[in-house]
Structure formats: structure tokens, C-alpha cells
Specification:
The chain contains 9 helices and 8 strands. It is α/β, with parallel strands linked by helices. It has a single domain (about 15-265), classed as Vaccinia Virus protein VP39 (Rossmann fold). Strands 1-4-3-2-5-6-8-7 form an 8-stranded mixed beta sheet, with helices on both faces.
Length: about 270
């Protein structure tokens, strides 16, 4: 049989991923389960599988996703991350806990159309992506028309795309794409408003125009500029598996009393 292991490793953990079995796919192998994810999890979970497949883009070492998978054993969860060590640590944890409803992909979120077939996902989470906030980096943000087209194609109708960020500028960016103005207190002093890192904010001229591509495919259900102190946002999130659960990265900002920004979109 051909050896699919990388000939030249960009990481000491690249070859070690092959030792973790079917719980993890990497590089070109990440595309081999396209259209068969439910079949894969049906075989692993068994008759209790509720047929839900949920993707987290940027799962890091899956401390967060592992906790959720333990709490929801009948649903399937897939974590995707670009870093070999993160995925190695994530898959190792899943194997140690014998979690049959959890799998991982070492790959890029921008390749979602190659990894999943049409209408294959029930829910997608993108929590705290790289803000890429320098002027030369803005084009590298994962949220753009091309990605959102591919994302929509992979999602079932009326399924949710949930987005969180600690970066006020990225939240502004998302609102601008949806044709919504930034909160007043971003630029004016408002009593009782959350703290904000002023260096994160964009000037209006640097924000994108409203995206017809996104608005034609997604409906905004809710957005919040202070998720953990917003009762309506928390109530909306209660219908999701991640309800009342924060990521380790997110906890850094909660402890500093800095706001977490949240949006939920529904695929049309």
C-alpha cells in the first residue's frame, strides 16, 4: 500500500498524527471523507446517533470541544485547526477519553467546500479567529464572500453559523458586511458601556461594504456586543451545545471584564 505520510515534515507532530487512527485526518486526506461524515459517525456512535454534525473551525487543542462532546454523546463534532501540535493534542485527548462522537481535521477553514459536501453540516462555530487587524492583513480574514459562499453550501437550510470574537474591530467588520452600524459606545462615551480596547477599532473608511452575497444566503438572528452580560444572547445560545461554556482563550477576556462579541446567522 502507498505510504501517505509526508516526505518532508513541517512539524514534528505531522507524522505522529498517523498514529492516532481514524479520529484525525490531515492535509489531502482531509478531503477523503467528504459526503460520508454521517456514515462515519453512524458507524462510530451507533443507533443513538442523532444525525447532527457540528463543525468548530479553529478548535486549537480541543479543550473546549472535548468538554462539549462529552456532554452531548449522541451528536457528532468535528474540530478543524491548522496547527499540527494542536490537532495532535486534541486527537490524543479524544482517544484517551474514548469519544466516538469526535473527530479532527488538520486543515484550513477556507477549504470547507473540499472537506464537506452540500448540506452536510448542521451547525458551524467560528470562535475567536485570528483578527488579522493590520491594514496589510485585513484581506487574510477568513470572513469574506468566497468563504461565506462555501460555508453556506456546506450547511443545511436553517442551520446556524455562530461567531465569537474578543476583537471589537472584527465585530465591526462583521456588522458592516451585514449592513449594520457599529454600536454608539464604540466611539462615544456611554455610561455603563463595556470596556473596550480602543486600538482594536476600525475607522469607518476601512470597513467593508455591505455584502449582498452574504445577505442573500444568511439571515442575522442575533448579535451582541457583550455576550456574557446579554440575557437575550445567552438565551439564544441555550439552544446550542456550547451554551454557557467558554473557551480557555475566551476566559482570559472574561477575567479582565472585557466583552465578548457574538453573532448568529441562519442559512437561508
Amino acid at each position: 500500500m502507498p505510504d501517505d505520510r509526508p516526505r518532508t515534515s513541517r512539524s514534528n507532530f505531522a507524522a505522529r498524527l498517523f498514529e492516532l487512527g481514524e479520529v484525525v485526518l490531515q492535509d489531502d486526506n482531509a478531503f477523503t471523507r467528504r459526503g460520508r461524515w454521517r456514515e462515519f459517525f453512524r458507524d462510530r456512535i451507533g443507533s443513538t446517533f442523532d444525525e447532527k454534525v457540528i463543525l468548530e473551525i479553529g478548535c486549537a487543542n480541543a479543550d473546549f470541544l472535548t468538554r462539549i462532546a462529552q456532554q452531548h454523546p449522541t451528536s457528532a463534532f468535528i474540530g478543524l485547526d491548522w496547527k499540527y501540535k494542536s490537532i495532535h493534542d486534541a486527537a490524543t485527548r479524544a482517544n484517551q477519553l474514548a469519544l466516538k462522537n469526535l473527530a479532527f481535521i488538520r486543515g484550513r477553514g477556507q477549504d470547507i467546500a473540499k472537506i464537506f459536501s452540500s448540506r452536510e453540516l448542521d451547525e458551524v462555530w467560528l470562535f475567536h479567529p485570528d483578527p488579522s487587524d493590520k491594514p496589510k492583513e485585513l484581506a487574510n480574514r477568513i470572513i469574506n464572500d468566497e468563504f461565506m459562499i462555501d460555508l453556506h453550501e456546506s450547511m443545511r437550510t436553517k442551520s446556524s453559523f455562530c461567531f465569537k470574537t474578543d476583537h471589537a474591530g472584527y465585530y465591526q467588520w462583521m456588522l458592516a458586511l451585514l449592513g449594520i452600524e457599529s454600536p454608539k459606545w464604540f466611539f462615544e462615551k456611554v455610561e455603563g458601556a463595556p470596556k473596550i480596547r480602543q486600538g482594536d477599532l476600525h475607522e469607518s473608511k476601512s470597513l467593508p461594504e455591505e455584502s449582498k452575497v452574504i445577505l442573500d444566503r444568511f439571515q442575522l438572528i442575533h448579535h451582541s456586543a457583550d455576550f456574557w452580560n446579554d440575557p437575550h444572547a445567552l438565551a439564544r445560545a441555550d439552544k446550542h451545545a456550547f451554551a454557557r461554556t467558554s473557551t480557555p482563550f475566551e476566559n482570559r477576556f472574561i477575567k479582565k471584564n472585557l466583552p465578548i462579541y457574538f453573532l448568529e446567522l441562519i442559512a437561508r
